[in-house]
Amino acid sequence: MDNYGANWTSLITEDVKGYALSVLQDHEDPNLLFLGTEFGLFVSTDAGKSWAKFTAGVPTVSVMDMAIQKRENDLVLGTHGRSIFVIHDYSALRGLNNDVLEQRLQILSATPGQQYVALATPSTRFTGSGEFRAPNEDYGVLLTFVASGKDLPHPQEEMEKARKQAMRAEASGKEERDSKKDQTPKVQVTVTDASGKVVRQFKRPVQQGINRLNWDLRSNGVRPMPTAKPPEPDADLPTGAEVTPGNYRITLALAQDPGNSNGGSAGKDESATDVSVLADPRPGINQAARESNYRSLIALQGMQETVVSAVERIVSVRKDIETLSSLIAKQASIDDGVTTLQDKAADLQDQLKELELLFRVLPETTGHVYDDDKVSSRISSAQYYIGSSLDAATPASAAFVELAQSELDSAVAELNAFLSGPLQQFRTAVSAASIGLLTETAAINRNPK
Amino acid sequence: MSFANTIRMTCRPIMLTFLLVSGSAQAGLDAELLQGLKARSIGPAAVSGRITSIDVVRSNSKHMVIGAATGGVWISPNGGLTWTPVFDDQPVASIGAVAINQQNPDIIWVGTGEGNVRNSTSIGAGMFKSVDGGRSWQQVGLAASERINRIALHPNNPNVAYAAAMGNLWGENTERGIYKTSNGGASWERILYTDEKTGGTDVKLDPFNLEKVYASLWQFRRWPYFFKSGGPGSGMYISWNGGKDWTRKTEDDGLPAGELGRITVAPSAAEAGRVYALVEAEKSALVRSEDGGVSWTRVNESYDIMSRPFYYTEIAADPENADRVYNIFENLAVSIDGGKSFENNPVVVCCAAGNFIHIDNHAFWINPDDPKHLVIGNDGGIGISHDRGATWRFVRNLPLSQFYHIAVDNDLPYNIYGGLQDNGSWRGPAEVWETGGIRNLHWYDIGFGDGFDALPDPENSRQGYAMSQGGNLTRWNLDTGEQRLIRPDPQPVNADLRFNWNAGLAQDPFDAATIYYGSQFLHKSTDRGNSWTVISPDLTSNNPEFQTFRNSGGLTLDVTAAENYTTIVAVATSPLEQGLLWVGTDDGRVHVSLDGGENWNRIDGKAKGVNSGAWVPMIAPSPHEAGTAFVVLDDHRRSDMRPMFIAWTTTAPIGPA
């Protein structure tokens, strides 16, 4: 028949299984095709010359229809038997080939970080186990990147077992390594704002092939208060206030592949991309107000940091005095001054406890105790107040911030007076008695940079 | 208007390069390295989907295994509260039968390819077996049987299993009939067979004599335009020696007269010798035997005793009361007088809102140690009862919906639209700016019946369109609740309109109020469906041999619009050029119009590995080149299960000057 210059070209290869049902071409990369068959989803990044079954979260199922949400670069699968699957921001597949998959580290795509205030879902709050609850995408910027290297875990179970076996075999000939510590590399994530200032740093696991991680739009928070159990030495900081809408830059860093380190050009070990954080369009709060809100929260984080420094100092001094007390006890009955020092130490410990109680409830206190008057509670009340909105402070919320500030000021003043007064005198006395060392007594800086 | 097969020679030629495919194969992406790009299952589980088989561990009735028509195998360890899919990585997703070895419940047998042979059924790949409670699976034979409807396990010998292999739906084959393995699936013996048109549909062991086997064969065949149940191959058989020798039961033994169709047998565990059977015939009947199947009495021949045997033929005898028997079909009916009279369960009812449990039942389990404990599987999922069916719990967390079509809007966050087999059309969010995740309550029911294409209005996503079977098309509105019928009228062509079960529907990308809809003609509305014009000639073969749906069914008529043929199934609008339209039909025609339907050009042709006359389920115009479209061809309805998919490219002029 006359088909006026038309060509029919079969785009099926032996990689495809199951009778075909649906097809879509990507709206940006003409070589990126999705094919739904009775037995699943297949993807080609070379205009149909080769196909791979897409198995990441997509089971064997009839993919009867597909749709692309262009703004999100989402592929939506309408399956005949397993409801709907969404592959969010598939744009990393554009131009993807096995060469790209061999890059040591390369960011492939980043979604904008869409801010929103989450409404409480209607109906049941505590659903039990029987309610169907599909997760949202992780909140914030979703980063898709590729990593490679035999030092990284392989996503496929059997391949990963083989990799670990090979690594053990290699290690066995060498010196005994400190096998207790997990040596698996992690990717270091650094977020900077438009002025280049670091707003957030954290680490995430990384595997061979396509990886994803999300930045939850939070800034760095304040290191935790001292507790009985010391934190992991390389632990990430807790999260702080959510940043304001605008432009940011995310840099990933990964230690070079030791397997390639002699080659010199072992591929990139750093990759960066610009990302935007988009405002929740609903509340009608302008950027200046959002920035004011953010500054208030950052100021409160500064106060919290002062509290942590103060408590750290108190804890440190208490430990030192404890140590001294035991040293003094060993020198007992030498002369009368010892008893006086011991009494003095006990007295200082009592004062330190009272000082710590200005800042916080002591760790491992049993029961729910009154704590509204603690400085840390004053700060968290103000944080709750300010953080409950994206808007600039109201007179009421500002008053809570002021109260926190003034209570912090007076508590720090009291602590500093103790450090420069009784503690300094004790230090001098101990020094005169030639017993050990004691933590310095310099004042706490109320406003660390 | 003119329907001349000519083209207006105007405008820009478009040359294509990127799709010129070289012959050399090249290494595809390493799919294992894409695992980080994880898809998200968002449900819905609001209406679940078709269940074909249920089995439960007898020593622990909380441990349930179910098979879904097109959704794999799922296991619940806690009485149906939570479920885990265990068949995701296997080559097929369609399940006909599941069976647990009750002595060692870690052994699970699965027969793939469902036996409820409706037009939209999938295909299987034989028998699978797990020896580790479903963690891993092995294909253990009968790979060419296409569908396994029932499995019977020997209760004391884990190596002995029987399978009712139905075989090919859309053609003939020889790997069908009743099979037996005596070595745990390593090899199978075909122990009962008549011909290449006939498959095994049921096999049961007598609870009082484990060497006694009841089996039935069924002659059946589906074409795109016709279904036929029944023929000389069908019959009921009994073996007294584990399947070595068989006795065929006939009219002389009390079965209905004439050619038979689908048959199922249920020996009573409550009383030795009592056996029930449903027998499809000219005059279908429930028959009963008191002597272990030697002789039969027709106890119920009412018109609805077997209403759709091709889709549901299942009977269950109560394990304690020999006179209580359930008929599992459209309704759930129970008899307490040995099958003479039945009463429909009042809450397993179509179709108004507020009913408890979906109709169209395929699978049923009675707790052998507590006969009030029932589990039912139907087109809408799973129901569980602890009071013999008076009240039910609907399992609300099995995302087994069978979508035909899917669409998205541009809201923030965006919504997803689609229609489901036997479960209407729905709209729900891709994500929610809420704390509790996407739940069933976020899904709006926007259309009744079987659902297919569902589209949002580009200017207002609170309204849109939903297609239902038989050409029904509605315009729904979430603010007013209206679901207004906008099915095209037959004017001006004055012909009976033939709409496919799943008819083509498309939105015009350039005009929000314009939609296109296909019968054998292409219909166009420029006012959101209030009025229609026909803008094409009959674009199908219009072959009368393919227009036999009015008599479809065989022994039992089943005319539901599912066999409508010589119809338009794909309508596609170019996002680049206004008026550039593609139309694909179920009988392999592809037409293009460059001028909004003034002129139509037939362009289906032959490419390597492609069948002419194959169904055209989808045409995807390239968003890059107006002269390119991707055309999917599907010929599984003529038993060719190969994937077929082509790029159509033209160097001819496209669009206005």
Low-confidence stretches of chain B: 1-25
Low-confidence stretches of chain A: 262-268
Which class of secondary structure composition applies to the elements of chain B? mainly beta
Number of helices of chain A: 5
Strand order of the largest sheet of chain A: 10-18-17-12-13
Give the overall shape of chain A: elongated
Q: Could you tell me the mean pLDDT of chain A? A: 90
Instruction: Please state the structural category of chain A.
Output: alpha+beta
Helical residues, percent of chain B: under 10%
Cα distance spanning the termini of chain B: 21 Å
Rounded to the nearest angstrom, the radius of gyration of chain A is: 30 Å
- Tally of DSSP helical segments of chain B: 0
Query: Judging from the principal axes of the Cα atoms, what is the shape of chain B?
Result: globular
Number of strand elements of chain A: 18
Helix content of chain A: 25-40%
Main sheet specs of chain B:
6 strands, mixed
